[in-house]
């Protein structure tokens, strides 16, 4: 198999799983360990991956993954945790859904809920929920971020402060090992912090890849979250912290992925 074929396959696996290992790739692609090590080094030099012991992970730091790429990343895991999150959102309530592909997945699972008021700063969420005639959708306004349809800035936070939500659902770019919830855009961080402050119950939807990444701006701690929805068990130290904080962890996988 040529390098031109291997590179896209390696990147697809990394986007799906958040990481790749030398041994798995060598077996999967039918090449030697040395060949895979060279491939990973070249992809790392190109900024496509970051080398770690035994393999590589998606790059992290100060620049987020492109939006369309985030949509493809672990799509099945996002559906699973979105289903679990939506199952805990009752009908006849007011909720907020913020920016992100995970919250968009939650919106898709709310299409059959009745008598919802959904406030959002995510144009994609608003478009999804137009298909639910029993859902009143309010869009905050603000500065439109064209890369992902997100509304951010002072106008957005001022609009959010006019409400008291039954439930606030947020996503994030990364979760640190000490339980800090992280993002890249300070304006988006301010919006997320306001959502948490204005919500009686707070929910975070973040798949396992967020535990392998980092970002520079702090939103809050998992101690400020009531329910944390993810698609794989979290590391034991973080699980212990969540237990101490009374943050409920909900781990969900699609049935077809676990069979």
Automatic annotation (TrEMBL):
GO molecular function per UniProt: DNA-binding transcription factor activity
Recorded superkingdom: Bacteria
InterPro entries per record: Carb_Metab_HTH_regulators, DeoR-like_C, DeoR_HTH, NagB/RpiA_transferase-like, WH-like_DNA-bd_sf, WH_DNA-bd_sf
Domain annotation HTH deoR-type: ranges: 3-58
Keyword Transit peptide: no
SMART domains xrefs: DeoRC (SM01134), HTH_DEOR (SM00420)
Alphabetic keyword roster: Repressor, Transcription, Transcription regulation
Keyword Transcription regulation annotated: yes
Entry-linked Pfam families: DeoRC, HTH_DeoR
Gene3D superfamilies in the record: Winged helix-like DNA-binding domain superfamily/Winged helix DNA-binding domain
PANTHER family the UniProt entry points to: GLYCEROL-3-PHOSPHATE REGULON REPRESSOR, HTH-TYPE TRANSCRIPTIONAL REGULATOR SRLR-RELATED
Name recorded for this polypeptide: Glycerol-3-phosphate regulon repressor
